Amino acid sequence: MTAADRLLVLQRALRAASPQDVVTALSRVLAEEFGVTSCTLLLADYGISALQPFGREVSPGSAVPVAGTPAGRAFMAPEQIRTAPAHGDPHETLYLPVSVRGDRLGVLRVVRPADGDAAPAEELAEAAQALAHELLAADPATDVFQQTRRLRRLTLAAEMQWDLLPGRSCERPEFSMGAQLEPAYAVRGDNFDWAVNTGTLAVSVTNGMGHGVQAASLTALAVGALRNARRSGADLAAQADLANQAVWSAHTGDAYLASVLFEVDLATGEVDAIDAGSPLVLRMRHGQVERVTLEAQFALGTLEDTRYVPERFTLEPGDRLVVVSDGVHDYRSPADEMFGTRRLAASVRDHRLLPAPEAARSLLRDLARFRGDRDADDDAVALCLDWRGRPAGPAH
């Protein structure tokens, strides 16, 4: 059987399987057609601190740490990682990224004969990608993958917030992007959203006031209103206006959301932006970090008749854009010391060589170290966008 035939058999088996049985179908076909001894799907938890084996009882003890493990390196890079067999062991282990369009879901751990009597690594990598696409299709129809991803129970507010997200990373020829929410299992009002449309990238970071379900519900209303306006063809100003009206109509000024909205022209790198609150925007260019200063406008839902006005700046290839909520830059220690823009800029510089998704996560790790043993008293979101610009050739 040719490589193409094997992959076709796998794809058909995955599509035919019930949503909860996709991984079982994958294991069967890899054993029968690809010569694999065993395989295990490792799914990233919400905090991206561990990879949890699918099909096992979920517990912190069963999880594989992201830091310092071959599986973690495969997930974060992302790239194939091969571990040589131990002396006398006839098998080797491959760790293969499971991702779709840059959205990293986890890692496929594959054990195969070390003597080459199995499908090559390139074919197995294609099998991992086929699995990723099927996971996205199957996930809305079953709870089993969501259950595996959580090492402990999410609060109701966190469940609502994670269900709102478009993903945690995105990769296109023009850019690479990643974001993270903290505290992952108890996040309340912070949120990020993005959408790649014809010729544009839309991005928003929002921070709903309040706590618990109240904050999550407020954010869900605003994100839904922004999406509804965007999908109706409204420009950035009209999106903000309509979201403001939706929040005002529900709360008449008693609740609001600090937000920043972007629309990036994928052909030119020109960015239309609206600063409607407290999220902070930094740009790193040629190793220098500076704040992108935007005119402060009213938070969404503050006043009924607010009209929002976009401002424009331009990204150059090689730029990194970082957006954080006030839970990052305004965090104060028990000694009343603020994390602040200076530490934030230093963190951005320190992690300049990391891929965008890992840079966002590392920034929040720096905040956690600054916080020490103290529990977070506010949500935090970090979003990182690496701009490459449109490649030469036909339009994308």
Automatic annotation (TrEMBL):
Domain PPM-type phosphatase: 172-387
Record key words, sorted: Hydrolase
Molecular functions (GO terms): phosphatase activity
Keyword DNA-binding: no
Pfam families listed in its UniProt record: SpoIIE
Annotated InterPro entries: Bact_Sigma-Reg, GAF-like_dom_sf, PPM-type-like_dom_sf, PPM-type_phosphatase-like_dom
Presence of keyword Hydrolase: yes
Family annotation (SUPFAM superfamilies): GAF domain-like, PP2C-like
Domain of life where this protein originates: Bacteria
TM spans (from-to): none
PANTHER family: STAGE II SPORULATION PROTEIN E, STAGE II SPORULATION PROTEIN E-RELATED
Protein name: Serine/threonine-protein phosphatase
Source species: Yinghuangia soli
Source species taxonomy: Bacteria, Bacillati, Actinomycetota, Actinomycetes, Kitasatosporales
